TrEMBL record:
<dbReference type="Pfam" id="PF01047">
    <property type="entry name" value="MarR"/>
</dbReference>
<protein>
    <submittedName>
        <fullName>MarR family transcriptional regulator</fullName>
    </submittedName>
</protein>
<dbReference type="InterPro" id="IPR036388">
    <property type="entry name" value="WH-like_DNA-bd_sf"/>
</dbReference>
<feature type="domain" description="HTH marR-type">
    <location>
        <begin position="1"/>
        <end position="145"/>
    </location>
</feature>
<dbReference type="InterPro" id="IPR036390">
    <property type="entry name" value="WH_DNA-bd_sf"/>
</dbReference>
<dbReference type="InterPro" id="IPR000835">
    <property type="entry name" value="HTH_MarR-typ"/>
</dbReference>
<dbReference type="GO" id="GO:0003700">
    <property type="term" value="F:DNA-binding transcription factor activity"/>
</dbReference>
<dbReference type="GO" id="GO:0006950">
    <property type="term" value="P:response to stress"/>
</dbReference>
<dbReference type="InterPro" id="IPR039422">
    <property type="entry name" value="MarR/SlyA-like"/>
</dbReference>
């Protein structure tokens, strides 16, 4: 099991400072693991998030809706969409009722990639936690926000 004090060779003025730094350190660790997992699929965690949102929506949705549902708010959402379009994982669909609005739709290729990702064994990053501990952690993180 990790120990932040040992991992970064530091001491902390109090437990609140240690907790805040531990959240940031753990978020970075998780991000690194996610980047490594998605690399063989040639997508980023943010691109995966967009595909996941589109699959869950079940119909074309606006870029604004996608942005509002993203786990990590991306100021570069348009660039994310461009890259996914270039990879033919999504397509843009003109909105019939408002020409200024563009909807985004996941393609069959995008659906296939998600299926492949879903069936790939992932490292359980929360393996050291019981279900009760995971719930407590989630509740505490919600309380922070």
């Amino acid at each position: 099991m990790g120990d932040l004090s040992k991992d970064i060779n530091s001491e902390f003025a109090n437990d609140k400072i240690k907790a805040m730094l531990n959240v940031m350190y753990t978020a970075s660790w998780i991000q690194s693991k996610q980047n490594s997992f998605f690399k063989p699929f040639n997508i980023s965690p943010q691109q995966y998030n967009v595909l996941r949102i589109l699959r869950g929506a079940g119909e074309p949705i606006s870029v604004q809706t996608i942005k509002s549902r993203m786990l990590e708010r991306a100021p570069n959402a348009t660039r994310l969409m461009d890259k996914l379009c270039d990879k033919q994982l999504i397509e843009r669909v003109a909105c019939e009722s408002d020409r200024r609005v563009v909807h985004i739709k996941i393609t069959a290729q995008g659906q296939g990639l998600l299926t492949e990702i879903d069936t790939t064994k992932r490292e359980d990053l929360l393996a050291n936690l019981s279900l009760k501990e995971a719930k407590t952690l989630s509740d505490l993180l919600d309380k922070i926000r």
